UniProtKB/TrEMBL annotation:
Pfam families: Bac_luciferase. This is Luciferase-like protein. The keyword Oxidoreductase applies. One of its GO terms (cellular component) is cytosol. Keywords: Monooxygenase, Oxidoreductase. GO terms for molecular function: monooxygenase activity; oxidoreductase activity, acting on paired donors, with incorporation or reduction of molecular oxygen. InterPro entries: Bact_Lucif_Oxidored (IPR050766), Luciferase-like_dom (IPR011251), Luciferase-like_sf (IPR036661). Residues 28-247 form the Luciferase-like domain. It comes from the Bacteria.
């Protein structure tokens, strides 16, 4: 039995659609203020994602934001969920991650994935066909850079001379890998320190893969992104923010996140999202029940994080749900999980 507490966190993409106009300057400032306030309320992590060339400004610079968040907070962990690693020079990823780790006294975790959006790969001169090898070699080179070994790296995708990569992180960041397809999940189990999951659908696949690679299931570390709206009256809340969720999910479909966009249909309404299970609607009691069941069944889950606000939704609107999460849901879940684990025979 693992007594390590699960962390509750927030997820940010910093999308700012013109349909709901506002200044990026104000948006960033308000979000940093929100994160500092959320930490004081008990939030323990913030997760940043990445894309490029998006009309709504989906953040292309998560390391910059991570450093800014670090300067506004004291204790919460900061991670990426996730960086599209094949688009980047892995040495630059190692350098940037090490710098953020140093700036935040070791509070940073590097989450990466292989990506899927063709225009990004074309613009950065990468091939979608090479995603697996770009990711795997990139992680190997990042680890070598952090180890301080001044040796050559020779691979099929990257060559790097015997040069020092400095400064070294004083606390080596975890390398977490996100995936949804079975081969990618298997790769995450083999090469990563932990698994970035989406909608809790692939936890068993990841744990089975750990065993195939000779690692115990108890060694698994899952960082679970939640697609759930928690509100006192979730249906009423959904009627207010559902269009923002529809914009978010259909945007991912159009980019190819869930399969070829030409053959993956868009959702036609916010209700269709709920009917398909793309979003869960929970009141506080339901959230406590669902999260308790998840954490009792899966002690490998080390973090659950929720969208701070949906694209175009105001920061204040998202903060109302954060307040409910921290004041009513988190204490009850922690109490219930602790009680359930005490009942389990050693």
């Amino acid at each position: 039995m693992n007594d390590e507490h699960c962390t509750f966190g927030l997820w940010y993409d910093f999308r700012n659609p013109t349909r709901w106009p506002r200044s990026f300057t104000d948006f960033y400032r308000q979000s940093l203020e929100q994160i500092a306030w959320a930490e004081r309320c008990g939030i323990g992590s913030v997760w940043l994602t990445e894309h490029h060339f998006m009309e709504d400004g989906y953040t292309p610079s998560p390391f910059v934001l991570a450093a800014a968040i670090g300067s506004h907070t004291e204790h919460l962990r900061i991670g990426t969920n996730l960086i599209v690693a094949p688009l980047h020079n892995p040495v630059r990823l190692a350098e940037d991650a090490a710098t953020v780790s140093l700036l935040t006294a070791g509070r940073f975790d590097l989450g990466v994935g292989q990506g899927y959006w063709q225009p990004e790969f074309a613009a950065f001169g990468r091939s979608l066909r090479h995603r697996p090898s770009l990711l795997e070699e990139g992680i190997a080179l990042i680890r070598q850079a952090w180890d301080g070994d001044c040796v050559e790296f020779r691979g099929s995708r990257f060559d790097f001379p015997a040069l020092p990569v400095t400064p070294q992180p004083e606390r080596t960041p975890q390398v977490l890998v996100g995936a949804m397809a079975d081969p990618a999940i298997d790769r995450a189990a083999r090469i990563a320190d932990g698994f970035l999951s989406t909608q809790n659908a692939h936890h068993e696949t990841y744990l089975d893969a750990l065993e195939r690679h000779g690692r115990p299931r108890d060694a698994g570390r899952i960082y679970a992104g939640q697609w759930a709206v928690i509100a006192d009256d979730p249906e009423r809340e959904w009627s207010r923010i559902g269009e923002h969720a529809l914009y978010q999910i259909n945007g991912y479909i159009g980019m190819g996140a869930f399969g070829p966009p030409e053959s993956t249909p868009l959702f036609d309404s916010p209700q269709a999202l709920v009917d398909a299970g793309a979003f869960q609607l929970w009141d506080a009691a339901t959230a406590v029940r669902e999260l308790t069941a998840l954490l009792v069944a899966r002690p490998q889950v080390k973090d659950v994080h929720f969208w701070a606000q949906l694209p175009g939704e105001s920061v204040d609107s998202g903060s109302a749900r954060i307040e409910l999460l921290t004041s009513k849901v988190m204490p009850e879940v922690r109490s219930a999980v602790a009680a359930a684990r005490q009942e389990v025979p050693a």
